[in-house]
Specification:
alpha/beta, seven-stranded mixed beta sheet, four-stranded parallel beta sheet, 16% strand, globular, binds pyridoxal-5'-phosphate
Length: 456
């Protein structure tokens, strides 16, 4: 072992006091959200019917580079942050690579993922606004769990619409949410108009994030003092997640190490944005250069095979439209085991950064992901979430490339969470029963055919 410690922790006082908003440093900004009724850029007051006021302000703010983290949020962060930056010495050794691999570990809290970073902020703003209830959707269950924790802390009632296949596959996640005081409904349900309509059109559907979002938005609109909160995709969520990248950058500067390659898995894009945007800011300002890689599942390849177009964020088409890399809002991905990556689109921010070639993207197949997850668990000790394991897969591939080329590059990836609730998936892999479903071009064409026609 050399002189870099296995784990680097910042002290509590080094916890960032502001989030970083990369949009302020982008010359060409992400495209504006459109109102689905008028197809015009959505105004703050229109958005405030759906989201909390302060979240709307952050959503639309393309110019302020640093936004202070409220003291109460920072205090909560102190229970589990700063998170460790780990040097993966044992993985490097197993690979026999000259590359230096680091990972930023976000799984050290009960929700088991980075999602708590935004959940606690959004719950805080909801409380400050005087709301009593919030609604949300959850795919694999990490966001619902994180928001339940945030709502318990600020004494808000949390209503979660959980994608049906996860609800059935992950009963323990459901009970964690209920323990934190949330109520959990499998989606599509019969409790909303849109849920009833989707159930009628697709009687055997196991649900999707797009459906669950529509249900949660509808439910919030029917309660007197509620708003809808979203765990990924939006600018505000990417902003809150920047705490990951700011800490990573501070820890690496402390070690005197500069990363060459930064890797994150990409579902809605928030953890990747969080990890990478402080580094992308340096790229944009001409201070430094890095390779940034987004990793998505081959079963839901929005960046690598999607269209860059305005599309609906939800199946029910009630949310604002967003310009993003998308597979079409009616695309329902196969029941892959990385539930947190099963979203038809990508955040407008990551989409625009990808379009400007500031980040690269690649897709990986499920069995290859679980091979990487297993190697990681056996060498580094931590059982990774399937979502996170997409980033592990590509970090390993990059480290093997370095080995072949004899290069000592420094690789950093986001280990977004732990996989204790994903043992059904690990079981399938261990039994050799996992398959790699990849949509055909014809499958994708169906989703593209229903993209709204908007030219701006
Ligand atoms: C939700 C989730 C993701 C993907 O969401 P992003 O918004 O793309 O970050 C990745 N990893 C874990 C553990 C998750 O829970």
């Amino acid at each position: 072992m050399n002189n870099v410690p296995y784990k680097t922790y910042l002290s509590e006082s080094e916890l960032p006091d502001a989030w970083y908003n990369v949009r302020a440093d982008m010359k060409k900004k992400p495209a504006p959200l459109l109102n689905p009724a008028t197809m015009k850029p959505v105004t703050a007051s229109e958005l405030e019917h759906v989201f909390c006021k302060e979240c709307v302000r952050q959503e639309l703010d393309d110019n302020t580079p640093y936004i202070p983290i409220p003291q109460k949020v920072r205090d909560f962060y102190k229970m589990y942050r700063p998170s460790p930056l780990v040097r993966a010495y044992f993985l490097e050794k197993a690979l026999g690579t000259p590359a230096k691999i680091y990972y930023k570990f976000e799984g050290n809290n009960t929700s088991g993922s980075h999602k708590l970073n935004s959940a606690i902020a959004q719950a805080y703003y909801a409380k400050e606004q005087g709301l009593t209830d919030v609604t949300t959707e959850t795919g694999a269950g990490q966001w619902g769990t994180a928001l339940s924790m945030g709502c318990a802390f600020f004494n808000l009632k949390c209503h979660v619409y959980m994608v049906k296949c996860s609800y059935e596959q992950k009963p323990f996640r459901r009970e964690v949410m209920r323990t934190y005081g949330a109520d959990v409904t499998p989606s599509p349900s019969m409790t909303t108009e849109i849920g009833r309509k989707i159930n009628e059109e697709h009687p055997n559907t196991t649900g999707s994030l797009g459906c669950a979002i529509s249900e949660a938005v509808e439910a919030a609109s029917k309660m007197p003092n509620a708003r809808y909160l979203l765990g990924s995709v939006l600018n505000q969520v990417c902003l809150h997640q920047s705490v990951i990248g700011l800490e990573t950058m501070a820890a690496m500067k402390k070690l005197g190490v500069k990363p060459d390659v930064i890797i994150g898995c990409a579902g809605g894009g928030s953890n990747l944005a969080g990890l990478a945007t402080p580094f992308i800011g340096e790229k944009l300002r001409g201070e430094n250069d890095y390779r940034i890689i987004a990793v998505e599942p081959a079963s839901c390849p929005s960046l690598t095979r999607g269209r860059y177009a305005y599309d609906f964020c939800d199946t029910g088409r009630v949310c604002p439209l967003q310009k993003m890399y998308t597979l079409g809002s009616n695309f329902i991905p196969s029941a892959s085991h990385a539930g947190g990556l099963r979203y038809h689109g990508m955040s407008a921010l990551i989409s625009e950064l990808y379009d400007q070639k500031l980040i690269e993207a690649t897709s990986v197949e499920q069995t290859k992901v679980f091979e990487a997850a297993t190697l990681f668990a056996r060498t580094e000790g931590t059982l990774p979430a399937p979502e996170s394991s997409h980033a592990i897969r590509v970090a390993i591939d990059e480290a093997l490339r370095c080995k072949a080329e004899g290069r000592e590059e420094t690789i950093v990836f986001g280990l977004t969470g732990t996989g204790y609730f994903d043992m059904v998936a690990y079981g399938k892999f261990n039994d050799g029963e996992m398959d790699d479903y990849i949509p055909t071009d014809a499958d994708l064409a169906e989703g593209f055919a229903r993209l709204p026609e908007i030219t701006c």
